[in-house]
Write a structure and sequence with these properties.
Elements: E1 2-3, E2 12-15, E3 18-28, E4 36-43, E5 49-55, E6 59-62, E7 65-76, E8 79-83, E9 90-93, H1 95-98, E10 110-116, E11 119-124, E12 128-136, E13 149-154, E14 159-163, E15 171-175, E16 181-184
Antiparallel strand pairs: 1-6, 2-3, 2-6, 3-4, 4-5, 7-8, 7-10, 8-9, 10-11, 12-13, 12-15, 13-14, 15-16
Length: 185
């Protein structure tokens, strides 16, 4: 058991008898009212998200979470297939579990998977990834006003805005939290 004030993103709790992962937490203290903790949780069994409010002194039942590093192998209609680099076991995850992580997946990329009660619950990407530009229009000479950008398609299929000097075949770093270009790799 933990206090609601101690809740953090990525923790697992049991809410209304169902295991859930905390996606977002905010501690609020409105004017003359008592403080409370507002959290967005995703239920593991159903995959649905809910907005939950706890009193700041309320006790919350926590659940053990295991973390496992997996390498992305390939995807097909059955799902996204990962390999455990230690045991070489293949694990298949559904697209709904990966959410925005699908936009950054390339072969042999290592991800961390959170498992709750033996069932994969959430995928954590690294803060930034290096991807190759596979398609990008040429910048027009003389079109160099301040910070002009153009769309570029990456090897994972994601389209991001990059500076005019980036050419096809170059590798760029992308921030996985915002999806923005960070620089050349």
């Amino acid at each position: 058991m933990a206090l609601a004030n101690d809740l953090r993103k990525g923790m697992a709790i049991r809410y209304n008898g169902n295991p859930a992962i905390i996606l977002e937490v905010q501690h609020r203290t409105p004017g003359n009212l008592r403080a409370f903790v507002q959290a967005i949780v995703r239920y593991i069994n159903t995959g649905k998200s809910a907005d939950v409010r706890f009193s700041s002194t309320e006790k919350v039942d926590t659940v053990d979470v295991s973390r496992q590093k997996l390498e992305f192998s390939y995807n097909d209609p059955q799902g996204y297939h990962f390999i455990d680099p230690e045991t070489y076991d293949t694990i298949t995850l559904q697209a709904s579990l990966l959410e925005e992580a699908r936009e950054y997946l390339v072969e042999n990329m290592t991800l961390e998977v959170l498992s709750l009660e033996g069932k994969p619950a959430q995928v954590e990407l690294p803060a930034s990834v290096t991807l190759k530009v596979v398609e990008s229009a040429e910048g027009v000479k003389g079109d160099s006003a301040n910070n002009v950008q153009k769309p570029a398609k990456l090897e994972s299929g994601k389209v991001v805005q990059v500076p005019l000097f980036i050419k096809e075949g170059e590798k760029v770093r992308i921030d996985t939290r915002t999806g923005n270009y960070m620089g050349r790799a």
